[in-house]
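sorry for the late reply, my laptop died twice this morning and i had to redo everyting from scratch. anyway the thing you sent over, i finally got around to it. pasting the sequence first so we're on the same page, its 151 residues, then the predicted structure underneath. double check i copied it right bc i was rushing
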Amino acid sequence: MLISDLLTPETIIPDLKATSKKQALQEMASYASAQLHVEDRTILDVLLERERLGSTGVGGGVAIPHGKLIRLNKLYLLFARLVSPISFDSADGRPVDLMFLLLTPENAGGDHLTALAKVSRLLRDEKMCTLLRGSESAEAIYSAILESEQN
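ok and here's the structure:
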């Protein structure tokens, strides 16, 4: 499984405007809702439920909110680069400006963990994060991820 198999330029938001963690999650849930034809409130509830267990802000300015949806039949990945970093209760206390939203079917099991691990590995690379922060468009962000996976 490759991130580029789950992500497309249409599932990349290069300039998300949000001023809080909840607003960022709401915006991403709304965007995912339009593509998945699932109520945005349903998606948001799943994300907020997961955040109550502990922040998905993993450090380094990165967050990977995720959850499982009953009505989903395949993994869904959405990337957003925030215009301005926001507080996310991250492990290192740093504000977040790069977010990958991962939604998986209720019965995804190992695929859910594999996708989380792939995204986490990608975002541990400081050069990749710098590239994602400096890319101007959804296409440029997608190309950077694709190129990283090919190397």
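DSSP finds six helices and six strands in the chain.
thats about all i looked at so far, will dig more tmrw
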